[in-house]
């Protein structure tokens, strides 16, 4: 009886292993590398109402607890000298060297005049007004991410730049090759590390499943340094998080990106 139980258990176990082995051959995936290229914010974000209130509160506290600056002390000293000059109590021999050509008030007035002439660069650029999503000179207070069109089967979809891993390459080398081939050599980026920061897996349509059932994409992160995309035939955009959500049609792909970006 015990021998039969052991034999049956061995048969069941062998069948399970065979099933796993067979499923492993059927579930072959292609290896891809993807690149998240980010253009970091150039200017600070506008403060909202609460942030403005907090800022004003801290400025008030800082002003109340602050000591007089060197300029304020110098201004008071100049006022005392002016009173002495008007009263004729200044010793020309002893105090002549201490009389300066520009008083603290003159310096302050010159600073106010210079500030009045200064104009800040606009936060909204011409590319913002035209909604030119191919330009890097837009959304200056936000992070922009590079996306481009891919032909997946019969579908034309917008994704991060990605390509298939070639045997002999490291995944980091595949990611670098993707940037060169998709964006050209003029676009300079800085990769963060040799290890992927994210992962996404998807299956091909049933009609496309020949040698592999799907793809496993390992994402690398890179920061934009300089240059621009030279391939004018490439359909690409620089988008922020809100725009990215509308461009990416796959909810699972977008949620995968949300785990390490945006």
Layout: helices, strands, pairs:
Layout: H1 2-26, E1 29-39, H2 49-65, H3 70-87, H4 92-95, H5 104-117, H6 126-130, E2 144-152, E3 155-159, E4 162-164, H7 171-183, E5 188-191, E6 198-203, E7 214-226, E8 236-239, H8 241-247, H9 251-258
Characterization of the model:
About 2% of the residues have low confidence. The chain contains nine helices and eight strands. By secondary structure, it is an alpha+beta fold. Strands 1, 2, 3, 4, 5, 6, 7 and 8 form an eight-stranded mixed sheet that branches.
Residue fraction in strands: 15-25%
Helix content: 40-55%
Number of separate helices: 9
H/E topology pattern: HEHHHHHEEEHEEEEHH
On the 0-100 scale, what is the average pLDDT?
Answer: 85
Uncertain spans:
17-22
* Overall 3D form: elongated
Query: What quaternary form is this?
Result: single chain
Compute the separation of the termini in Å. Answer: 63 Å
Radius of gyration: 33 Å
Q: What descriptive keywords fit this protein?
A:
eight-stranded mixed β-sheet; 262 residues; 42% helix
Would you summarize the structure shown here?
The protein is of the alpha+beta class. The protein has helices at residues 2-26, 49-65, 70-87, 92-95, 104-117, 126-130, 171-183, 241-247, 251-258; strands at residues 29-39, 144-152, 155-159, 162-164, 188-191, 198-203, 214-226, 236-239. The chain contains nine helices and eight strands.
């Amino acid at each position: 009886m015990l021998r039969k139980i052991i034999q049956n258990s061995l048969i069941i176990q062998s069948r399970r292993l065979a099933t796993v082995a067979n499923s492993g051959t059927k579930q072959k995936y292609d290896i891809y590398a993807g690149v998240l290229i980010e253009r970091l914010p150039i200017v600070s974000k506008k403060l909202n109402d609460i942030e403005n209130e907090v800022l004003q509160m801290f400025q008030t506290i800082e002003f109340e607890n602050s000591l007089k600056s060197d300029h304020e002390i110098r201004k008071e000293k100049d006022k005392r000298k002016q009173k002495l000059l008007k009263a004729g109590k200044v010793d020309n021999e002893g105090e002549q060297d201490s009389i300066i050509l520009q008083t603290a008030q003159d310096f302050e007035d010159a600073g106010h005049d210079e500030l009045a002439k200064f104009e800040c660069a606009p936060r909204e650029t011409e590319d913002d007004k035209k909604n030119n999503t191919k330009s890097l000179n837009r959304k200056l207070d936000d992070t922009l991410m590079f996306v481009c069109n891919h032909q997946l089967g019969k579908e034309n979809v917008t994704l991060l730049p990605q390509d298939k891993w070639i045997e002999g390459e490291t995944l980091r080398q595949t990611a670098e090759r993707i940037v060169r081939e998709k964006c050209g050599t003029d676009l300079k980026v800085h990769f963060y590390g040799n290890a992927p920061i994210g992962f996404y897996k998807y299956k091909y349509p049933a009609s496309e499943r020949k040698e592999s059932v799907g793809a496993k994409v390992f994402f690398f992160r890179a920061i934009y340094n300089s240059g621009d995309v030279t391939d004018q035939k490439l359909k690409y955009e620089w988008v922020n998080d809100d725009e990215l959500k509308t461009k990416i049609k796959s909810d699972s792909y977008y949620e995968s990106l949300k785990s390490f970006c945006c």
